[in-house]
Write a structure and sequence with these properties.
280 residues; 10 strands; single chain; two-stranded antiparallel sheet
Length: 280
């Protein structure tokens, strides 16, 4: 946390310096505004000022608005812009003259959308089959956006797959589920944040130390870096079809259909143990 102190008014303001330090409400606010920057509807400078206002509770009164119309606020505006850049510059990072949103959380900040419920943080309750299908739809959406005829249909399919109603406190199983929900009225930025969150979880699984059920584990040995891609297919192609066949052939979790119903992390733990055993 960063701290701003105004001793003469006995005011102390804490401003987050990372996503992990933000409250849920702050995350919602920042992400909604951030997608206005991404879509070209708001400048990065104005975004920083709006974020700074949100963090500090800064409000512009009648006197400020009158002076603004008369062009008398240059000094005040310059100071606000300077402070907002100091304290809110971490939300975007500049890369080759473009600004990239730094949101990297694996927390599902939207566990419910239109009375349908999504996966737990870090995809902890996803089955292998759900994960694999979601990955396919995510890649279809990514490819579509880079084509001459972009469509949001894969994105809606992605959300419908992951977000389902609950029965007796549990999300209904994907097998045999016929979705009736439509998510076209959900704000575009919220759907895209959910997609971004999913990719964050994938990156964490591939690269980071994770704490699962009190155990620290790192699955990165399962995903060795390749110098040259095996396929020209864009998106996150992690070879999950190969994993499905490999595990199904082992018979540990049953045939392919049973493997798809197995929790994702059970599969990953099995593969990691198998690899460790092989090294020994």
């Amino acid at each position: 946390m960063n701290t701003i102190e105004i001793p003469e008014k006995n005011i102390v303001i804490e401003i987050p310096s990372s996503w992990d330090e933000c409250s849920s409400d702050q995350v919602y606010f920042l992400l909604e505004k951030a997608f206005k920057v991404i879509s070209g509807k708001m400048s990065i400078g104005m975004f920083r000022i709006v974020a700074f206002q949100h963090f500090t509770g800064l409000k512009f009164g009648t006197s400020y608005r009158i002076k603004q119309r008369l062009g008398l606020n240059q000094k005040v505006n310059s100071e606000i812009a300077r402070l907002s850049k100091i304290y809110c510059d971490w939300i975007f990072e500049e890369d080759d003259d473009q600004y990239q949103l730094t949101f990297d959380s694996v927390i599902n900040y939207f566990p419910e959308i239109k009375r349908c419920y999504g996966p737990a943080d870090l995809l902890a309750d996803l089955t292998f089959g759900e994960f694999q299908q979601a990955l396919v739809l995510m890649n279809e959406y990514t490819e579509s956006q880079e084509s001459e005829s972009p469509t949001d249909q894969p994105l809606y399919g992605f959300i419908k797959l992951l977000y389902r109603p609950k029965v007796k406190g549990q999300r209904v199983a994907l097998t045999g589920y016929r979705d009736k929900a439509t998510f076209k009225s959900v704000p575009d930025w919220k759907l895209k944040v959910t997609l971004m969150w999913f990719t964050n979880c994938i990156q964490a699984i591939k690269e980071e130390d994770l704490h699962l059920s009190g155990v620290e584990v790192n699955f990165s040995p399962l995903f060795p870096a390749e110098e040259k891609p095996r396929s020209k297919r864009k998106g996150l192609n992690l070879g999950w079809n190969g994993i499905l066949l490999d595990v199904a052939e082992s018979g540990v979790f049953g045939k392919a259909a049973e493997v798809n119903e197995t929790p994702l992390y059970e599969i990953l733990f099995y593969l990691l143990k198998k690899q460790d055993d092989h090294k020994q």
